[in-house]
Amino acid sequence: MSKLISKTLGRLLLTASCAAPLQAETLAEIYQLALNNDAQLKAAHAAFNAGKQSIPKARAGLLPNLTGGIVISDGDGDTSSFRTLNVPGNALQVGATGENDDESEFYFLTLTQPLFDLPAWFTFKQGFDLDQQATAQLAAEQQSLIIRVAKAYTEVLRTSENLVTAKAEQRAIGRQLEQTKERFEVGLLAITNVHEAQAAHDDARVNTLEAESELDIAFEALEVMTGQTHTQLAGLSAEFPIKPGELADREAWVKFAQDNNFSLAAARLSMLAAEKNAKAKRAEHLPTVTAQVSYSNQHTEGNFSPDSGNNQPFSADDEPLVFSLRMDAPLYTGGLVTAERKIAQQEFIQAQENLLHIQRSITQQARSQHLKVHTNSARVKARGLGIVSARSALEATQAGYDVGTRNIVDLLISQRLLYQAQRDYANARYDYILSMLNLKEVAGLLSPDDINKLNAWMKPELVVGKSDSRVTL
After folding, report:
1. Using CA atoms, how far apart are residues 257 and 440, in angstroms rounded to an integer?
2. Is residue 102 located within the same domain as residue 178?
3. Which of 27, 106, 119, 385 has an alpha carbon 20 to 30 Å from 83's alpha carbon atom?
């Protein structure tokens, strides 16, 4: 029965767009375009690449640091140098004044190795948490893209079916309006029947206009992710199976979500990273010990021209190799170390509370999405039966109207109930698809394979296109 209803909607959908060439894009093609062009996913990849540098950056604080440099100078100027020599019975002034011209070259290399630096060690350990957090966040964004693509794609199909139903309703009420006018003209009906039929027809025209706008808006939403214009999509097969999720136990889904949800994993790693940062800031009060080896080479040469006129060239070389062991302790930093320690501790508490909030949210989402899958699968079946009931009611009302036992209001209400049932059935199918994908996302099970499985039920011959006609009011 539900298959017959779906086939009827499918034929209506195909008839409404039969003038369009059968070159509809499939869900898999839209997803591939989104993978290559979605700005949100590209930003996530950039954040991932930046996060993967957390370990090299943190490791640098523990590794040797080699610096080198060169200084070349050339100077000249007046020089005056005297010193006093004490001789028995007298003090002599010895020295000279004159011009000094010299050139100097200085080269140095310094190797520094931290021996004891607890803040650097905790920062290094924090790097591993940040590295894994970047991976979990990217995985969460990749799953989010699948949901966004599926939601935007099915929204096009949903609004298209709503448009088909709205047009069918408008045509049906239009025919009823013509019949009512004909009966009024021959005196079989009162003018109030014409007015009621006209009001219903005008309302149906407005609904069609709104459905056309919603369809075009849904197509525009795809461009946000793909960066391209889309005009035709493949429709969902009437044979698409509706069944509850494989795991019947709701709490099993909850446990699986707690163990595998990527957003929860990222929050947990963020908390661990904040904890290590707090330890690093507490260790800033401790001394650090550093070993250093320094080598330098300085060569200086020039001329000294005293006022006496005798030019005196000079030259000097210095090539020291120095080993040192250095300990630094922050005795007083104006309160900076204490403030940073308190900030880091509060950030750790904040990360703990965020993790607790996300854990509770994931539990609630897993339960609610699991319930929605079962509810929506039941809704599809019930909505299918609702169409059959509404059609039977319409036929009975039409028969009563023809013999005069039912009025025009009863007939219009019955027609509206039938088309509403058809819209509800189409919406229930797409709600079921999204609830199933959302449940898998919460559980960390969502993958591109789910897109491929859903894509197998998209039929290119069921062309869903932008509205090519407009209703004028």
Report:
1. 9
2. no
3. 106
